[in-house]
Design a protein that fits this description.
By secondary structure, the chain is mainly β. The chain is built from two helices and eight strands. About 10% of the residues are buried.
Length: about 120
């Protein structure tokens, strides 16, 4: 398992998590009290599952794929290249789940910060 990040469930229908994947952690780092997720619930998930990931494949399949990073990641030396050029370099972009999105909590303003 990779790095866990908070992810917000954004689908319209509820889902029931597998009891075999427990324990599940909520946004505050505490175990979930229910296996049912509703729209807007936040749970910690593997970053690759939420954001997807990028690899560069060996065209001859003799080497392991080169992991580039989570999401749509591009090596510095390949930045600015077209999608066609990246495909020619054997980039493969894997999408994350469409029913979750990375969750970034909004900062809570203190009374003194509102000035």
């Amino acid at each position: 398992m990779g790095k866990l990040i908070p992810a917000k469930y954004i689908a319209e229908h509820e889902i029931v998590l597998s009891k075999f994947g427990a324990p599940y952690i909520d946004a505050s780092g505490k175990p979930l009290t229910s296996l049912t997720l509703h729209k807007g619930d936040v749970i910690h998930m593997d970053e690759h599952e939420v954001s997807g990931f990028t690899v560069i494949l060996d065209p001859r399949a003799e080497k392991e794929p080169q992991y580039i990073g989570p999401g749509r990641a591009i090596l510095d030396e390949h930045k600015g290249k077209s999608p066609e050029q990246l495909a020619a370099l054997n980039y493969q972009f894997h999408e994350g789940r469409r029913d979750f999105e990375p969750y970034i909590p909004k900062p809570v303003l203190k009374k003194d910060d509102a000035k």
